[in-house]
């Protein structure tokens, strides 16, 4: 296997730059560059020199012998001065060693997976952690990265294998008049796993929302103050405002952190009967995006005003332009800021309540694997109800369920996913 290297820190000028090397020639390259042996775990400040003896940089060199490293292989890290020129010079020198090459995106993590240091769910958790922008995203990613999902899968797998072993024992001793009825224990095992799978499967959608971000649409008639409200919430001039109706024709999006949750606020076109073809397109898009949003904030001019679309649980209805009203109760103003804190608190409360239903499983792929396992369990229970003559079919169904769970953590049937997953990683991961 090739020895690989890559810049593991962000590119560009910085205080420190880290180049990571992993593979069978990692310690050899470190010895050639520093003139010192790195056979065990350790560190040291060393001068890095090229083949002619010229100094490339002074670096902190860390050695991590396999299998106790991130990749499971021998790993060396060079902590250089954060100079673009220094990184280029050391990288060029590393490229000159036989069997050493630049890593592909995600190749370090892929080797960690192949060497049993991580399962596939943990790899996805690592990708989510790198992309995390909010505390909720970080917390969720860390739960997956720590291996919680993999441990849960191992528990389900053990229960299904135990159930399968009980069924196959009956098959093996079918001619020996074994009086033991295994169906009560098998049924208890299957019910327990199925209930756990159902609970986690239901929460995948909400976990994906935490990972990708919630959407909140500001909806209302033209000139009701939607863009002004968006600008006030964003703290900047994100949308154009004017006294002319129909100014907003496209969806204006602002990314925010509300209570540790990633939220995209959307200013939509004013909902009305329009004659202008471009405005019609904007209104149709506004309706589509607002319907798909997690929460809609309706701005209305008058109490009892008919809403332009159906109100859903969690939606908020507010009177607009509080700065122009004598009675400002229950009204909001993007001009003066009245009601903004209350709106933010209400949105945060509602989204936090929803995020509490999030599952440990965070991706659609996880849900599909769990649903396949549940389908196998349901099929097993149906076959068992028909009696011992079909127990061999029940055992086969359970094996399908076990394989579905193993695919969740990358033990089987996931080769086609790997290139797509690792392509999203940076070179140093």
Offer a few descriptive terms.
Gyrase A, domain 2; 3 domains; Four Helix Bundle (Hemerythrin (Met), subunit A); alpha/beta; Rossmann fold; 429 residues
How are the SSEs placed, and which strands pair?
Blueprint lengths: L2 E5 L8 E7 L3 H9 L7 E8 L5 E10 L10 E7 L2 H12 L4 E3 L4 H8 L5 H12 L3 H11 L2 H25 L10 H20 L1 H9 L1 E7 L5 H9 L17 E7 L2 E7 L9 H16 L2 E6 L15 E4 L20 H16 L8 H21 L6 H18 L6 H8 L7
Parallel strand pairs: 1-6, 7-9, 7-10, 10-11
Antiparallel strand pairs: 1-2, 2-5, 3-4, 4-5, 8-9
Helix pairs in contact: 4-5, 6-7, 6-13, 7-12, 12-13
- How would you name the CATH homologous superfamily of the largest domain? tRNA modification GTPase MnmE domain 2
Rg measurement, Å: 29 Å
Largest sheet, order of strands side by side?
A: 3-4-5-2-1-6
Residue runs with pLDDT of under 50 for 5 or more positions = 239-249
**What is the fold-level CATH name, i.e. the topology of the largest domain?**
Four Helix Bundle (Hemerythrin (Met), subunit A)
Total beta-strand segments: 11
Structural class: alpha/beta
Number of helices: 14
Biggest sheet details: 6 strands, mixed
Ends apart, CA distance between termini: 18 Å
Number of domains: 3
Mean pLDDT: 84
General shape: flat
- Following the backbone from N to C, one meets helices and strands in this order, namely EEHEEEHEHHHHHHEHEEHEEHHHH
> What would CATH call the architecture of the largest domain?
Up-down Bundle
Beta fraction of the residues? 15-25%
CATH class of the largest domain: Mainly Alpha
* Helical coverage, percent range: 40-55%
What do these coordinates show?
This protein has a 6-stranded mixed beta sheet. The protein has a 5-stranded mixed beta sheet with strand order 8-9-7-10-11, with helices on both faces. A hairpin with an 8-residue loop joins strand 1 (3-7) and strand 2. The protein is flat. The protein has 3 domains: 3-114, Probable tRNA modification gtpase trme, domain 1 (Gyrase A, domain 2, 2-Layer Sandwich), CATH 3.30.1360.120; 135-203 and 361-410, tRNA modification GTPase MnmE domain 2 (Four Helix Bundle (Hemerythrin (Met), subunit A)); 225-305 and 317-338, P-loop containing nucleotide triphosphate hydrolases (Rossmann fold, 3-Layer(aba) Sandwich), CATH 3.40.50. Helix 7 packs antiparallel against helix 12. It starts with a strand and ends in a 7-residue tail after the last helix. It has helices at 26-34, 84-95, 107-114, 120-131, 135-145, 148-172, 183-202, 204-212, 226-234, 277-292, 340-355, 364-384, 391-408, 415-422; strands at residues 3-7, 16-22, 42-49, 55-64, 75-81, 100-102, 214-220, 252-258, 261-267, 295-300, 316-319. The protein has 429 residues and is of the alpha/beta class. It is built from 14 helices and 11 strands.
């Amino acid at each position: 296997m090739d020895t690989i290297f890559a810049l593991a820190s962000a590119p560009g000028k910085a205080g420190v730059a880290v180049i990571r090397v992993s593979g069978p020639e990692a310690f050899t390259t470190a010895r050639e560059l520093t003139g010192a042996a790195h056979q065990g775990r350790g560190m040291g400040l060393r001068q890095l020199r090229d083949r002619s003896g010229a100094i490339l940089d002074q670096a902190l060199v860390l050695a991590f012998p396999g299998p106790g490293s991130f990749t499971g292989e021998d790993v060396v890290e060079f902590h250089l001065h954060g100079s673009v020129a220094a990184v280029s010079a050391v990288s060029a020198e590393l490229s000159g060693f036989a069997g050493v090459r630049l890593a592909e995106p995600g190749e370090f993590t892929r080797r960690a997976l192949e060497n049993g240091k991580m399962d596939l769910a943990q790899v996805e958790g690592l990708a989510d952690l790198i992309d995390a922008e909010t505390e909720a995203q970080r917390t969720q990613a860390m739960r997956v990265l720590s291996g919680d999902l993999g441990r849960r899968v191992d528990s389900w797998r053990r229960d299904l294998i135990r159930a399968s072993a009980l069924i196959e024992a009956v098959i093996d001793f079918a001619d020996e008049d074994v009086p033991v009825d295994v169906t009560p224990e098998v049924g208890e095992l299957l019910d327990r796993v199925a209930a756990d799978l159902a609970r986690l499967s239901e929460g995948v959608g909400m976990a994906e929302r935490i990972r990708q971000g919630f959407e909140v649409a500001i909806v209302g008639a033209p000139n009701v103050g939607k863009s002004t409200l968006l600008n006030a919430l964003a703290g900047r001039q994100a949308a154009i405002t004017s006294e002319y109706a129909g100014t907003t024709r496209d969806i204006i999006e602002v990314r925010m952190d509300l209570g540790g949750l990633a939220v995209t606020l959307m200013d939509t076109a004013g909902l009305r009967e329009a004659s202008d073809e471009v405005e019609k397109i904007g209104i149709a898009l506004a309706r589509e995006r607002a319907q798909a949003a997690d929460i809609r904030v309706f701005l209305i001019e008058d109490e009892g005003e008919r809403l332009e679309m159906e109100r859903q649980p969690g939606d908020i209805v507010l009177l607009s332009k509080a700065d122009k009203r004598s009675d400002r109760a229950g009204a909001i103003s993007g001009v003066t800021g009245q009601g903004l804190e209350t709106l933010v608190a209400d949105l945060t409360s509602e989204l936090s309540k929803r995020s509490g239903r999030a599952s440990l499983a965070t991706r659609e792929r996880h849900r599909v694997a769990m649903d396949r396992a549940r389908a196998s369990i349901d099929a097993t229970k149906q076959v068992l109800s028909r009696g011992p003559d079909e127990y061999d079919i029940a055992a086969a169904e359970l094996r399908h369920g076990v394989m579905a769970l193993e695919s969740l953590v990358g033990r089987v049937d996931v080769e086609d996913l790997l290139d797509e997953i690792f392509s999203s990683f940076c070179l140093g991961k």
